[in-house]
Write a structure and sequence with these properties.
By secondary structure, the protein is an alpha/beta fold. It is built from 14 helices and 17 strands. It folds into three domains: 135 residues, Rossmann fold; 166 residues, Spore Coat Polysaccharide Biosynthesis Protein SpsA, Chain A (Alpha-Beta Complex); 79 residues, no CATH class.
């Protein structure tokens, strides 16, 4: 029977004592001890070395990743059952969202990940290799099931786990991340079917998103959602095209943009491209407020671009030069205020948590100066006043969201932890 160790100093002492018995493999995650796929993975990980340490996410860290609506057994119960399995030597508690600190502490010879990854999209790979270890993908498909053993959705992914495909020169893959986007996905995909490949990466929708998407592409895959950047970084290396374009379900590719994208791919002068985006808010095109200068980086070579590891507002980092496309991507965000306020709590909480993890402390001037400063900038300096009542609402709501972000950061600073976070996608 394995040991359960929560204190880091004690964990290090015990590992150093046992390390003489052989090499160490580290696996981290939430782990459902009653999930056959998870148990198969741990048994495969144990076969890679003599000593298996499982970094089991704490309840708070697990809910931060999975969302509060997902059922979760308490950490002591999960740890007790895992420690009783024949493959696990030590169960340690992982409070953080990522195991970087634990990797530096233990310096594992092997860092094991399941088949829902390929080596290219393991974010810890560089750290592990810098410490003399290696990343190994092992185990069978970890298809997620709900309580009672029934799948949460009757839809079956186009492929299990992660696929490893070489990029096809000159071809374009459009990737559309989704969850419960039945009302948006059809017009989105209608505007994207001209690409060489369309991949819909779904976070286990409970509506008909996958069924509708399957009418347009055979490449509809389901993968558990952690946050937006992680989801995109997981699917990007699995695209078959040399070029990747990220398209949200509430966005549309115009015919002019299609021609421009095909042209720049043919010429290949840069490794990534920012694309002009025009956004409708509450049904009206916003021509000012700063939104008229929106150029997100959405088109890039598959092996040159990855998203920053942030919960919200993550940007693509491209290893190479970046150009600009002036033909427009159309964005239909927040058709009504109910939709806006559904996202308001989630985004302000996640952005506050991101600041907290980066060591930022909320100060009085963040609450007094930043929100009105943002309003003045958008409404007056960026001429939001010319967008009428829609502009007034947009500028006021943006300032209010900024106030909520720093108020929540203050609360996190005060209690010394992020606490329970809402899930990152529409449920």
């Amino acid at each position: 029977m394995g040991e359960i160790i929560k204190e880091r100093d004690e964990l290090l002492r015990r590992v150093e004592h046992l390390r003489g018995s052989g090499t160490l493999v580290l696996a981290d995650g939430t782990f459902d001890p009653f999930h056959a796929g998870h148990i198969d993975f741990l048994e495969a990980a144990k076969g890679l070395a003599e000593l298996l340490v499982v970094a089991l996410r704490s309840d708070a860290a697990a809910r931060s990743n999975r969302g509060p609506e997902r059922p979760l057994n308490p950490w002591p119960e999960r740890a007790r059952v895992l420690s009783a399995t024949r493959s696990v030597d030590i169960v340690a508690e992982l409070d953080e969202r990522h195991p970087d600190e634990l990797i530096r502490l233990l310096k594992p010879a092997v860092y094991a990940k399941g088949t829902d990854f390929i080596e290219a999209n393991v974010r810890e790979r560089e750290l592990v290799e810098s410490l003399g270890g290696k990343v190994v993908i092992c185990g069978g498909p970890k298809t997620r099931v709900a309580a009672g053993g029934a799948s949460r959705s009757g839809f079956r992914s186009a492929w299990e786990g992660a696929r490893d495909v070489p990029p096809r020169p000159g071809q374009l893959s459009i990737i559309v991340p989704t969850k419960n986007e039945e009302h948006n996905i059809r017009p989105c995909l209608e505007s994207a079917v001209w690409a060489d490949e369309v991949i819909v990466c779904d976070s286990f929708s409970t509506d008909r998103t996958c069924e509708v998407a399957a009418e347009f592409t055979p490449n509809v895959v389901q993968h558990e959602y952690v946050h937006s950047a992680a989801q995109k970084n997981w699917i990007i290396p699995q695209a078959a095209g040399e070029w990747v374009m990220i398209l949200d379900a509430d966005e549309r590719v115009t015919p002019e943009l299609r021609e421009a994208v095909m042209r720049v791919i043919k010429n290949g002068n840069h490794d990534g491209y920012r694309i002009a985006r025009r956004t409708y808010f509450l049904g009206k095109l916003i021509r000012h407020c700063g939104w008229n200068r929106d150029y997100p980086l959405r088109l890039f070579r598959r092996d040159k671009g990855r998203y920053q590891d942030r919960e919200v507002h993550s940007a693509v980092m491209v290893d190479g030069t970046v150009g600009r496309i002036n033909e427009c991507l159309m964005h239909y965000t927040d058709p009504d205020l109910r939709n806006y306020f559904e996202k308001f709590d989630r985004y302000s909480s996640l952005s506050a948590a991101d600041l907290f993890r980066r060591g930022v402390r909320a100060r009085w001037w963040h609450l007094i100066l930043k929100p009105p400063g943002r309003f003045v900038k958008m409404y007056l300096l960026n001429l939001g006043v010319l967008d009428g009542f829609h502009g007034l609402l947009l500028c006021g709501l943006t300032a209010m969201a900024l106030f909520a972000r720093y108020a929540k950061l203050w609360e996190m600073n005060r209690r010394g932890s992020v606490g329970e976070l809402p899930s990152g996608r529409r449920s």
